[in-house]
Amino acid sequence: MKLVKNPCLPLTALRRCHATSSSTAAAATDFDCDGGVGTRSDVKHQKPSSNASPRHLKYQLYSLLGSASPGRLSAALSILRGMLPPDSTSPPDAATRSIVFYGLAKRSQPLNEESLALLVEMAKMGLFPHDAILFTQFITKLCRCGATSGAWDFFHAVKDAGGSIEAPVCNALLTGLAAIQDFERMNLLFSEMKSFGVRPDVVTFGILINCLCKSCRIHDALNVLDAMSSPDSGVTPGTIIFNTVIGGLCKAGRLQDGLSLLDRMKSSHACDPDSVTYTSLIDAFCEATELDKAHELLTRMEKERVAVDVVILNTFIYRMCRHGMIGSALNFFRKKKVEWPEVKGNAFTYTVLIGAFLHSNNVGWAMTLFDEMIKEGVSPDSVTYSTLICGLTQVGKLDDAYSNVSLMRKNGFRVDIKSYNILISGFCKKKRLDKALEIHDEICEAGLRPDIFTYTSLIDAFCKAGDFSKAGKFLNKMVDNGCNPDVVTYGTLINGYCKSGDLELVMKIFKSMDVSMVPANAVIYTTLIDSYCKNQKVDAAIYLFDEMQEKDILPNVRTYTAIFKGLKNRNMFDKAFELMDKMNLQGCKPDYVTMDLLTGWLTVIATSSGQMEDEAGEESRCLHLTALRHLHASFSTDVIDCDGGVGTRSDEKHLLTKKHSHNASLCNLNYQLHSLLDTTSALPYRSSAAGSPPPPPP
User: Fold this and answer.
1) Which of 123, 202, 226, 361 has the most CB atoms lying inside 10 A of its own CB?
2) Which spans of this chain does UniProt mark as PPR repeats (predicted)?
3) Are 366 and 391 in contact (CB under 8 A)?
4) H or E stretch covering 281
5) Contact in structure between 384 and 351 (CB atoms under 8 Å)
6) Would you list the domain boundaries of the chain?
7) What is the pLDDT, as a whole number, of residue 476?
8) Which burial class, exposed, middle or buried, applies to 546 when counting CB atoms under 10 A from its CB (0-12, 13-18, 19+)?
9) What pLDDT score does 302 carry?
């Protein structure tokens, strides 16, 4: 029987030979049994053995830099440090430098400051990548890892050491500087390129223009475009450059300048606009509701035989729907389906239209478009289903909305927490708490975590239903799951317990907000003040009112109305005058409820005071009417006449207000105010507090 030589024997012999030679360099690096680097305490300071061959050191560097372990990087840089003068008389050669910089450029982990300092030190010694491509890759790597300052230092160290600088490496550094919007260094580098003898290319100008446009520095971008267009620049702006500047002009609202640049790119540069050029302009004019101009651009686009696409179609439809022109958007879609047979509506097209019709409470058209979408072979995406869930919930079609959840899962889409929250909120508002709980359980079974909106919706629903046991259960579950209550959650609990009349527990919850570092807002204070006033605890309400102002929380008109009700029940008109002055000084305008409350109360007081014939009675009457004048001065600014002009005293009976639901009541109230004030016009004006405004002119 003929023996066959084992083909692996040469490899085995080579491995044994390598193991023998590498044992002499064991002091350089320790490998554990898993192939990792040992954890010597002095690994950062280890030096290559004097017996280690350059070839072996290269092998070690290549092996260490090829690993993602931070420890291996540290070991590699320690070996590299030991190869530098004065520790070594044989600095890294070109091959070693290529291994080092190639390995560092390919690593996914960023370099620390110590590593960057070592590399800059090497560059100053003339030890840097002489290959332009590798140099560019290394600068790009540093910038992408957030070490742009290190890239700047390394770049200039190479330049100062006599390294060759070319446009690509300058562009790589410019890109990094643009990402952090370091305009000062960008301008400096652009100026330095001339001293390097490096001519900016199209990419250089493109980086500058793109960064300036994104930063809304459109004037500077136009200056760079002019410099690029000059004969001595050596480059010519192309369609992409013009598209960038036109897009920047459109975002800045300079639509006419964008049109002028469109004409310039054709006449002065013989540069043909493309669909991106026209899309930017059309979108800007549609957003500015200048649809006629947008249609003119579309006509011009078709005459110039610029290919229309679904982006143009969607731009018109989206902007029309945003401006409430839903019928026009649908007609445009129907018309273009015939005129542009090669352009088909996609999921975005149908989703926008479906969402718009649902938002306008037109469920029939929304579902017709959804059926048409399926018939046309356009697959709904997750956004489509989410739009249906949200829209159907808002119009009260909760069961139809929930059916889309199973349809969504059936088609391979994962229902997100936002869609579930919309459904839970909808079922809670309809008091279908069993279904809301079912959806909550479904969220947990799907592997999703209920968020603060989920819990707050359920807590609010159970508080309103008077089931505080379940509300507390979900509050505890919320905290256990690491979801801290926010001001809305606390407001929900406080509102619920206030309605139940348990003010003692309410104050415990309110005080716990300070412990939880959740600041109360005007809504919570208003709820508390209103509840205390309704329970005849006006002094406590006044204390809370003063406390909220000490915390720089401005009361709103509802806060004032709530406390005025309490003051009226206790007939504390002196405090009411004080708060009315504060209300005026804060610029808080009373609404219909406030005016109705105070007018009735102060009219009774003023009338009863007028029956007193002494000086005190006259003083009291004057004071009350002054307060009414102040209120009227604030209130009358919101009153308009039937033609939209400002009303006058002669036609006060015919005034209407901006709030159409209270038009008649407000007109009647304002007329009563004038009737009362007219009968007392002979009384002297006396301010109830320093700094109060004068009465309104007749």
Assistant:
1) 123
2) 166-200, 201-237, 238-268, 274-308, 346-380, 381-415, 416-450, 451-485, 486-520, 521-555, 556-590
3) yes
4) helix 275-287
5) yes
6) 48-185, 484-570, 572-678
7) 92
8) exposed
9) 93
Residue 518's H or E segment, with its range, is none
Q: 484-570, superfamily in CATH? A: Tetratricopeptide repeat domain (1.25.40.10)
Instruction: Please state, in angstroms and rounded to a whole number, the distance separating the CA atoms of residues 549 and 544.
Output: 9
DSSP string computed for 441-482: HHHHHTTPPP-HHHHHHHHHHHHHTT-HHHHHHHHHHHHHTT
Establish how many alpha carbons lie within 13 A of residue 187's alpha carbon, considering only the half-sphere containing its beta carbon.
8
DSSP string of 540-594, one letter each residue: HHHHHHHHHHHTT----HHHHHHHHHHHHHHT-HHHHHHHHHHHHHTT----HHH
According to DSSP H, which parts of 127-254 are helical? 132-144, 148-160, 167-179, 183-196, 202-214, 218-229, 239-251
Return the pLDDT at 629.
64
What's the rounded Cα separation, in Å, for the pair 226 and 233?
Answer: 10
Supply the DSSP symbol for 254. Answer: -
Please write down the HEC assignment for all residues of 94-156: HHHHHHHHHHHHHCCCCCCHHHHHHHHHHHHCCCCCCCHHHHHHHHHHHHHCCCHHHHHHHHH
DSSP symbols for 300-342: HHHHTTPPP-HHHHHHHHHHHHHTT-HHHHHHHHHHHHHH-TT
The pair of three-digit structure tokens given for residue 303, joined into one six-digit string = 């005459």
Q: Which two tokens stand for residue 128?
A: 């840097």
| Sequence-ordered list of residues with C-beta below 8 angstroms from that of 503, at least 6 positions apart, any chain | 497, 531, 532, 535, 537
Dist. CA 184–CA 186, nearest whole Å: 5
pLDDT at 573: 82
Let me know: does 119 contact 156? Beta carbons within 8 Å.
no
Rg (CA), the chain: 38
pLDDT score for 577: 84
Residue with tokens 């223009």: 209
Beta partners for residue 646, in sequence order: 640
Cβ neighbours of residue 288 closer than 8 Å, sequence gap 6 or more: 253, 255
**Tally of CA atoms within 13 A in the half-sphere of 120 that contains its CB:** 18
User: Whose structure tokens read 């006259």?
Assistant: 618
- Residue 698 has a pLDDT of 36
Q: What architecture does CATH give domain 48-185? A: Alpha Horseshoe (1.25)
The pLDDT value recorded for residue 267 is 86
Count other Cβ atoms within 10 Å, centred on residue 185: 18
pTM: 0.72
Q: What is the Cα–Cα distance from 393 to 681, expressed in whole angstroms?
A: 56
Tokens of 202: 């199209």
Task: Supply 525's token pair.
Answer: 């204070």
Residues of the chain with pLDDT under 50: 1-50, 612, 637-663, 680-698
Q: How many CB atoms lie within 10 A of CB 689?
A: 15
Residues whose CB is less than 8 angstroms from the CB of residue 578 and which lie 6 or more positions away in sequence, other chains included: 689
Strand partners, 640: 646, 656
Distance from C-alpha of 309 to C-alpha of 298, rounded to nearest angstrom: 11
Whether the Cβ atoms of residue 454 and residue 421 lie closer than 8 Å to each other: yes
Q: Do 484-570 and 48-185 fall under one CATH topology?
A: yes
